[in-house]
Design brief:
The protein is α+β, with helices and mostly antiparallel strands. Helix content is 29%, strand content 38%. The protein has a four-stranded antiparallel beta sheet.
């Protein structure tokens, strides 16, 4: 399994807008082959920062999604400029 973890800082006062855009994007892409789930996390100390996490069955499904991934430009417009994405191999889980 793979996990894509994105951390970003949202422009001040735009978290609700970002959350709405994220939820709409998640609904549009929820039936993507190999996608096991998505999570949006808001930092409890820095209210304008958070994480978006997606869990993928395998690298092939994730790579296929990346090639055809719908435009998420509207979400990226909410970021201050601090935006980091990491792809991780899941090596352990209790789920």
């Amino acid at each position: 399994m793979l996990m894509r973890v994105t951390w970003g800082k949202i422009k001040s006062g735009r978290w609700d807008e970002y959350e709405g855009l994220w939820n709409a994007y998640a609904q549009r892409t929820k039936n993507t082959p190999g996608l096991k789930g998505r999570y949006l996390l808001r930092d409890s100390e820095t209210k304008d920062a958070g994480y978006s996490i997606s869990l993928w069955e395998n690298e092939g499904d994730f790579d296929a999604f990346k090639k055809t991934e719908p435009n998420a430009q509207d979400m990226s417009d909410c970021f201050v400029g601090q935006y980091v994405t990491t792809i991780c191999e899941v090596r352990g889980s209790t789920v």
